[in-house]
Specification:
Elements (H helix, E strand, L loop, with lengths): L1 E3 L4 E5 L6 E4 L28 E10 L2 H5 L9 E5 L5 E5 L5 E7 L6 E2 L2 E3 L7 E3 L2 H4 L2 E2 L6 E7 L2 H37 L6 H31 L9 H11 L6 H4 L2 H59 L3 H14 L4 H13 L3 H21 L1 H21 L3 H21 L1 H21 L3 H21 L3 H20 L3 H18 L4 H20 L3 H21 L1 H21 L3 H18 L6 H19 L3 H21 L1 H4 L2 H15 L3 H12 L8 H15 L5 H15 L1
Parallel strand pairs: 4-12
Antiparallel strand pairs: 1-2, 2-3, 4-7, 5-6, 5-9, 8-11, 10-12
Helix pairs in contact: 3-4, 7-8, 8-9, 9-10, 9-11, 10-11, 11-12, 12-13, 13-14, 14-15, 15-16, 15-17, 16-17, 17-18, 17-19, 18-19, 19-20, 19-21, 20-21, 21-22, 22-24, 24-25, 25-27
């Protein structure tokens, strides 16, 4: 028996090697609510940690412009910021000494710090204003100024400043002391001890003696602070006054910093501050107004989105595809970053088989989510898993099994992680993902691995239903039983397949649900049961199940043709194959013809399920015409069917290539019948070579037919040579 693993469809030879029985066991049942993500909010908030705040700055050598006339910029200095949650941001200064940090993980108007490490020519330098760079307000407009000097230079300048000032002070005090002592000696000489001035001089001399130690501590403290100044950032008069102070010329300091100029500057600053405060208040009012307008516009947009979404869902319920898509497109146009709505629209497109467009929206959604996951992994992983899951199912639908498996394996990894932390919430997701992977393994004929996953999934859902006998849990059991039925049919264990599908049907009959998704699944069970009953010889049950399935599917397709017409095709095809098996050719031609007509309406240029349906229906009709000796029609139908089948093989060889040899065997018999022996031998040559390498009883019988024809002398010399080559191949 030849098995087509796509949705568990079978082709088998009957005893006269002419008839092909193909059954569409449609299909692995996917979870009933798994595609749809409930709409809980219209905007996914961007986490705070995703914000970036720029911090600009420059690193220079302290006082370089003041003393050399040119600012010395520091290059190759490493500037680093570490946020509270240990997010590191680094930059290295260029030739102009500038750096730019895009700080993550911090909020505006908060205090933070940076570290600056000089390298290269400045490796023996240290940061002078260390205190300032440890208290930086994020969001500041002015660049951060960092200045450095050689190690030990600050201490040396401080010592020099203290030494010069102490020397100058001591010289000045000594002069004052001598002057006072001379005045005191004069009073003593005049015996004028009662003079008030005598007491004043005595007090002044005492103060001078005691002031040296106090002055030393004060000068040392001032020097420690003043050497940290970067004079390159100060006004010219301040620099001059600073230099006067640093060399002990205290009398000159007021000259460069006159009171009237400072007072005038102060008044200007007060006026500027007043004007700035007014502007700030105005900005705050404007900002509040802008925020109000922004919130209003966003709320209005949300309301509009709700209206469009409601219209899209309404027209979806009415099966008006054009208007449904129109309103979803309007939603996407207005809010292209809304993950929930993108998933909803992509899911809709997938259900109506607009696979390319659905893929585009899923990939767009993944792009949005991947950016969010970087900043808040746990919050967005469930959404990522959902989109990857739906994308995997989409690839499964278009027979791209490699991409489907890649996506679903990633989904399983994510969901196992989530279930480890929250089993109650995510165990079902793990179970459904196992089911999907099992389907892929079955379709690629990895039967043992598929069975393990199916049984694990069924055990999961039986446990869930025992804890909570809700409709979703109970129907999930039916879903897995249907898939197990297709599995056991695939390995030709039809009694087991019948038992599993009868249990699934019993579940749907007891629940008696009228929602389309449940009714559709009941029709699916009946379709598969019809095929299985045929294999176990229960023909009355088979025709009854198939007719009931067809009735249900036609009713569903009348309301929603894009979704349910393909199901009608499948059941019509199965009925056609059933009548063929019973040799009721008139009914077989009628039902298969109806299936082919429907397929011609639905088929596109891209290889998909309809290619498979078309190929097998054409092969079955070809087989019927062959049986009635209408070889011309039979050949025409076989050739057209092979066009579709070969396109499928090119698209998904692991799924469809094993069908090719079985069909070609039939075509060989047909070409022998119409005496096109060379064509028959060419076909035989094709299937005995790689990748098919066919052998067995049918090939032996074909060769026996050719031996008789050789004896009859009706085969050309070239064809006979080809037959010898074929025989040698088979011997090897």
């Amino acid at each position: 028996m030849l098995r087509a693993t796509r949705a568990n469809r079978d082709i088998r030879d009957n005893r006269d090697n002419r008839k092909i029985l193909t059954l569409f066991l449609t299909s692995y049942l996917l979870p009933l609510t798994f595609y749809f993500l409930p709409l809980t909010s219209y905007l996914l908030p961007l986490p705070l940690s995703a914000q970036q705040i720029q911090l600009k700055g420059v690193v220079t050598v302290q006082n370089s412009k003041t003393y050399t006339g040119k600012t010395q910029f520091v290059k190759n200095a490493e500037v680093e910021h570490v946020s509270a949650n240990n997010v590191k941001t680094k930059d290295v200064t260029g030739d102009d000494g500038k750096f730019l940090l895009n700080i993550k993980g911090a909020a505006p108007n908060t205090q933070t710090q940076i570290t600056v490490t000089p390298f290269g020519d400045f490796s023996d330098f240290v940061v002078v204003n260390e205190k300032e760079i440890k208290d930086i307000t994020l969001g500041r407009i002015t660049p951060v100024s960092v200045y450095i000097c050689k190690k030990g230079e600050l201490e040396q300048r401080q010592a020099d400043m203290v030494g010069i000032n102490m020397k100058k002070l001591e010289e000045r005090l000594e002069k004052d002391k001598k002057r006072l002592q001379m005045e005191l000696e004069q009073l003593k000489a005049n015996n004028d001890y009662l003079n008030a001035r005598f007491s004043e001089i005595k007090d002044s001399l005492a103060i001078i003696s005691n002031s040296i130690d106090i002055a030393f501590e004060r000068i040392k403290e001032y020097a420690k602070i003043m050497v940290l100044e970067n004079l390159d950032e100060r006004e010219e008069n301040y620099v001059r006054a600073y230099n006067c102070f640093s060399r002990g010329d205290f009398d000159s300091v007021p000259y460069y910093l006159p009171d009237h100029e400072l007072e005038l500057k102060y008044q200007k600053i007060k006026l500027l501050q007043k004007e700035t405060q007014k502007k700030k208040e105005l900005v705050e009012k404007l900002t509040e107004s802008i925020r109000t307008e922004e919130e209003y516009s966003q709320n209005s947009l949300n309301e509009l989105l709700k209206n469009w979404v409601l219209l899209a869902r309404t027209y979806n319920m009415k099966n008006d595809y054009e208007k449904t898509m129109f309103y979803y497109e309007k939603v996407f146009e207005a809010d292209s970053l809304n993950v929930e709505l993108i998933i909803e629209y992509a899911d809709y497109l997938q259900k109506i088989r607009y696979y390319n467009k659905a893929e585009t929206f899923y990939l767009k959604c993944l792009e949005i989510i991947s950016n969010l996951v970087k900043h808040d992994t746990k919050a967005y992983l469930p959404s990522e898993a959902l989109v990857l899951n739906n994308l995997g199912l989409l690839y499964w639908s278009i027979n791209d099994h490699e991409k489907a498996l890649q996506n679903l394996e990633r989904v399983l990894f994510i969901r196992r992680e989530l279930a480890a932390e929250n089993p109650k919430l995510y165990r079902k997701d793990v179970a459904w993902t196992l089911n999907h992977i099992a389907i892929l393994l079955q379709e690629t004929r990895q039967f043992d691995e598929a069975l393990v996953l199916y049984e694990e999934t069924l055990e999961f859902f039986r446990e869930f239903a025992a804890e909570d006998s809700s409709i979703n849990n109970v129907t999930a059991i039916a879903s897995i039983l249907i898939n197990l039925g297709t599995y056991h049919a695939d390995i030709e264990e039809f009694p087991t397949a019948v038992k599993e599908c009868e249990e699934a049907l019993d579940i749907y009959n007891k629940l008696n649900l009228d929602e389309p998704k449940f009714v559709s699944n009941k029709a699916l069970v009946l379709n598969n049961l019809g095929a299985f009953y045929l294999y176990v010889g229960e023909f009355e049950k088979a025709i009854e199940a198939l007719n009931e399935s067809l009735t249900i599917r036609k009713k569903l397709a009348a309301d929603n043709p894009k979704v349910y017409l393909p199901d009608v095709v499948q059941t019509l095809a199965n009925l056609g194959f059933f009548y063929s098996e019973l040799q009721e050719n008139e009914k077989a031609f009628e039902t298969l013809g109806a299936a082919i007509s429907l397929i011609r309406e639905l088929i596109t240029d891209t290889p998909n399920d309809f290619f498979y349906y078309m190929a097998l229906c054409l092969f079955q009709v070809a087989d019927l015409h062959f049986g009635e000796n209408d070889y011309s029609k039979s050949l025409e139908e076989y050739n057209e069917g092979m066009i579709y089948l070969r396109k499928l093989v090119a698209h998904a060889p692991e799924v469809y290539s094993h069908i090719i040899p079985e069909i070609i065997k039939k075509m060989i018999f047909l070409h022998i019948e119409i005496k096109e022996y060379s064509t028959a031998i060419q076909y035989l040559m094709e299937i005995v070579q790689p990748p098919y390498e066919s052998s067995g009883k049918t090939i032996t019988k074909i060769l026996e037919n050719f031996e008789e024809l050789e004896k009859a002398g009706v085969i050309s010399e070239e064809s006979m040579k080809n037959l010898e080559i074929i025989r040698e191949m088979l011997k090897k």
